[in-house]
Write a structure and sequence with these properties.
Layout (H helix, E strand, L loop, with lengths): L11 E14 L2 E13 L4 E9 L2 H13 L3 E2 L11 E5 L2 E7 L6 E2 L2 H10 L4 E6 L3 H13 L4 H8 L3 H5 L1 H13 L6 H6 L68 H7 L1
Helix pairs in contact: 2-3
């Protein structure tokens, strides 16, 4: 199989595992770090690599360079694989099964990293084994052995109808003709609106409540409250001018007592 030129692809790296390893020498043990990296363009190309160095960044860089030399092409039918397949490497076994659109990636950590880097969006998987290295290698081998109906018909030098039947050939041709162009994974990942803290399930450190913040015991601390825009204060009422006070009425002085009345009383 011809080697795939990695410079023409937009590859993304995924670090599956970083472990510390030791080499026993005469003077004792020499400790290094080993990195397992999976790369892919999410459009039918994937590869894996191993790197070992005294520092973690150097080990990851070496693993990425190794993975770029071991890229494989994965045949896709829409958003899934053509058929079910099993592969075994060492003590690990992986089963890959096509799924209907909208199913998503049903896979564990190591297998998920490989199928997502290859651009598979709908798949059912089952892995048997505990070693991430063996599981990733078995997954790569399974994807390497896949063939599309067109490739198999060309290899056998026969028509597509003779290989998969008339109904399946018509369905496959219609699917490949009506399949829309897949959007770029970068735009789908980074154009997603950012979620604010406390919006879905609250703060991660708190409970599951929507207002969650605070400790694990519950909602002991109120969550962030959105500030509502303050309405403008109503205008002050305009008081009408008070009417002028009425003028006081003139008082009539009491009549003066006559002299005859004063003498009679005396």
């Amino acid at each position: 199989m011809p080697r795939i030129d990695a410079k023409q692809l937009n590859l993304e790296e995924t670090v599956v595992k970083v472990s510390r390893v030791a080499k026993v020498v005469k003077g004792g043990k020499r400790f290094n770090f080993r990195a397992l990296v999976v790369i892919g363009d999410r459009n039918g190309h994937v590869g894996m690599g191993l790197g070992k160095a005294a520092e973690v960044p150097d080990a990851i860089r070496k693993a990425g360079e190794d993975a770029r030399k071991r890229l494989v092409a994965v045949p896709l039918v829409g958003t899934t694989i053509p058929y079910q397949i099993r592969a075994t490497f060492s003590s690990s076994e992986v089963m890959l099964k096509p799924a209907a659109p909208g199913t998503g990636v049903i896979a564990g950590g190591a297998v998920r990293a490989v199928v997502e880097a290859a651009g598979i969006r709908d798949i059912l998987t089952k892995s048997f084994g505990h070693s991430e290295l063996n599981t990733v290698t078995a997954t790569i081998e399974a994807l390497r052995e896949l063939r599309t109906p067109d490739q198999e018909a060309l290899r056998r030098n026969r028509s597509l109808v003779d290989v998969i039947g008339a109904k399946a050939a018509a369905r496959y041709t219609e699917l490949m003709a009506t399949m829309p162009t897949q959007p770029a994974p970068e735009a789908e990942r980074f154009d997603r609106p950012r979620r604010e803290r406390g919006e879905r399930g609250g703060d991660r450190r708190g409970g599951r409540g929507g207002s969650g913040g605070g400790d694990r015991g519950g909602d002991r601390r109120p969550g962030p409250v959105a500030r509502q825009p303050q309405a403008a204060p109503p205008p002050a009422p305009v008081n009408p001018p008070a009417p002028p006070a009425p003028a006081p009425a003139p008082q009539t002085p009491p009549p003066a007592a006559s002299a005859s009345e004063g003498s009679g009383q005396a």
